[in-house]
Amino acid sequence: MNPMKLISIEKVTLNIGAGKDQTKLEKGIKLINNIAGHPPVKTFTRKRIQEWGLRPGLPIGCKLTLRKKEALELLKRLFESKDNTLQPGNFDNEGNISFGIPEYIDIPGVKYEPEIGIMGLQVCVTLKRSGFRIKHRAWKKKVIPRKHRISQNEAMDFIKKTFNLMVGE
């Protein structure tokens, strides 16, 4: 097989949206720190949405991005919490996987904490191939050609082979 066509995991992102509820945001920060062992960063609003009571600069969530070995180890635990099964709807057409975990106590190795309560989080996995750097580099940025992009079926096959997951319907 062509080595440029090999798929790998670029990053795993954990995300908790709290809205304008600051106590939920603090609980989310503690939760992500307990799950991954790293403190997350806060996300802030950029737009004013008066109906929701949001203004620019207001913290509304937290996220953590992991790469390389740490991402792989955490991802195995996160897939176990989903019973090693994902739905085809969790895969998009650009090689990304996204799924939610409704209760963090389903994740192996994470214990219930009364001060956090029951809370869920969103997990996003970004896949890449060699050569994807052309999209982000500083000089001569280019669009990734269609034949080099990761399709939904290729992403499903990669996840099935790498993590022994079932992709059910």
Q: Which features would summarize this protein structure in a list?
A:
alpha+beta, 50s Ribosomal Protein L5, Chain: A, 5-stranded antiparallel sheet, two-stranded parallel sheet, globular
Provide structural commentary.
The protein has 169 residues and is of the alpha+beta class. It has a single domain (3-167), classed as 50s Ribosomal Protein L5, Chain: A, CATH 3.30.1440. It has three helices and seven strands. It has a five-stranded antiparallel sheet, covered by helices on one side.
Average pLDDT value?
A: 88
- Number of helical stretches of at least 4 residues: 3
Domains counted in the coordinates: how many? 1
User: pLDDT under 50 segments (min length 5)?
Assistant: none
The helix-strand sequence is: EHEEHEEEHE
User: How helix-rich are the residues, as a percent range?
Assistant: 10-25%
- Under the CATH scheme, the architecture is 2-Layer Sandwich
Say what the CATH topology is: 50s Ribosomal Protein L5, Chain: A
Give the overall shape.
Answer: globular
Beta strand count: 7
